[in-house]
From TrEMBL:
UniProt domain Class II aldolase/adducin N-terminal: residue ranges: 18-214
GO biological process assignments: pentose catabolic process
Keywords assigned: Lyase, Metal-binding
Amino-acid biosynthesis as UniProt keyword: no
Transmembrane segments: none
Domain of life from the UniProt record: Eukaryota
A GO cellular component annotation in the UniProt record: cytosol
Highest classification ranks of the organism: Eukaryota, Fungi, Dikarya, Ascomycota, Pezizomycotina
SMART domains documented for this protein: Aldolase_II
One of the record's GO molecular function terms: aldehyde-lyase activity
Organism: Oidiodendron maius (strain Zn)
PANTHER family: 3-OXO-TETRONATE 4-PHOSPHATE DECARBOXYLASE-RELATED, FUCULOSE PHOSPHATE ALDOLASE
Protein name as catalogued: Class II aldolase/adducin N-terminal domain-containing protein
Pfam families in the cross-refs: Aldolase_II
Length: 264
C-alpha cells in the first residue's frame, strides 16, 4: 500500500476498489455480515475506505464508497453520503495500530455467545490458529460507567468508545495489535490484519472456530484447544488458495453486483 495521502476515490487503484467490493460480498456469502456489519481498508496513514451506509451485499460501485479520516472517523469530503454510525471502530483501530491495513466488524451469531459466556473463545482448529490462546472480550459497560450520559445502545458511535475498544486489542507489536480479534459483549467482534483479504479470512475462520468450539463443548467431554505454539505456527497460512474461490462464489451469484469486476 502506498504511503501517499489518498483523499479521493479517484486516487485509489481500481484493483483495490474491486477487491473491496468483493470483500463485502464474500463476508455476506459466508454469513459474517447481513444488512449490518462492515469492513474497511486503509488507504494511507491518515485515510481509509469504507462503503456508505448500506447493506454490504448491495455495495456495487465506486459511488457506494467513501474515504474517511483516521483522525476523527469523519468523511474527507464535506458532501459525502451518510456513513455507518460505528465507523469509529475502524478509525480508532487504524489510529492505535499504524500497520493495520484492514478492519472488519461483524455481528456473527456464531461468535456472539462467546462474548456473553464465561467460556472464552480459543483457537480450536488449525485454520483459526491466529486466535491464539487469548481472545479479549471488550465490555462497553466499562465506558458507560465513565460516561453515564451516553446512549447505552451497545454501539460504538464516537471516538471515545472506539478508542476504548481499540485498546482492548492490547499493545502494538510492530504496529499491529497483540490480539487481532476482539469480541464485543452482547454485540459482535472486530477482526484486524495487515491486508484486506487476510481480514476477511480471519472473520470467516473466527466464526468457524466458534462453531467448532460450540460443537465440541456440546459433546460433554473435555475440550482440548491449540497450544500457544500450535496456534502461532498454524496461523501463518495465507489467502492465496481461498481468495480466488471466494471471489468466484460471489461472482457466480446474481445477488451480488460488482461493476468494477471484469466479469460484469
Ligand atoms: Zn455493530
Amino acid at each position: 500500500m502506498s504511503n501517499k495521502d489518498i483523499k479521493e476515490i479517484s486516487q485509489v487503484s481500481e484493483e483495490l476498489l474491486c477487491k473491496y467490493i468483493h470483500a463485502c460480498h464474500i463476508l455476506h456469502y459466508h454469513g459474517l455480515v447481513d444488512a449490518y456489519g462492515h469492513i474497511s481498508v486503509r488507504l494511507s496513514p491518515s485515510t481509509f475506505l469504507m462503503s456508505r451506509y448500506m447493506a454490504p451485499p448491495l455495495v456495487a460501485s465506486t459511488k457506494d464508497l467513501v474515504v474517511y479520516k483516521v483522525e476523527d472517523g469523519e468523511a474527507v469530503a464535506a458532501d459525502a453520503q451518510r456513513g455507518f454510525s460505528e465507523r469509529f471502530i475502524h478509525s480508532e483501530t487504524y489510529k492505535a495500530y499504524p500497520k493495520t491495513q484492514s478492519v472488519l466488524h461483524s455481528h456473527s451469531l456464531d461468535v456472539v455467545p462467546f462474548s456473553i459466556s464465561s467460556i472464552p473463545l480459543q483457537a480450536c482448529f488449525h485454520r483459526a490458529g491466529f486466535l491464539g490462546t487469548t481472545v479479549p472480550v471488550w465490555d462497553v459497560a466499562d465506558v458507560y460507567r465513565e460516561y453515564p450520559s451516553y446512549n447505552q445502545d451497545m454501539k460504538v458511535t464516537n471516538t471515545k468508545l472506539g478508542s476504548a475498544l481499540a485498546k482492548s486489542h492490547g499493545p502494538a507489536v510492530n504496529g499491529q495489535p497483540k490480539y487481532p480479534i476482539v469480541l464485543m459483549r452482547g454485540h459482535g467482534f472486530v477482526a484486524t490484519s495487515d491486508m484486506l483479504e487476510m481480514t476477511v479470512l480471519r472473520g470467516i475462520y473466527t466464526a468457524q472456530n466458534a462453531k467448532v468450539q460450540m460443537a465440541a463443548t456440546g459433546l460433554g467431554g473435555q475440550v482440548r484447544v491449540l497450544a500457544e505454539r500450535e496456534g502461532r505456527e498454524t496461523g501463518k497460512t495465507g489467502v492465496v488458495k481461498p481468495w480466488p474461490l471466494w471471489v468466484l462464489e460471489v461472482e457466480d451469484n446474481s445477488i451480488y453486483r460488482n461493476h468494477l469486476s471484469k466479469k460484469e
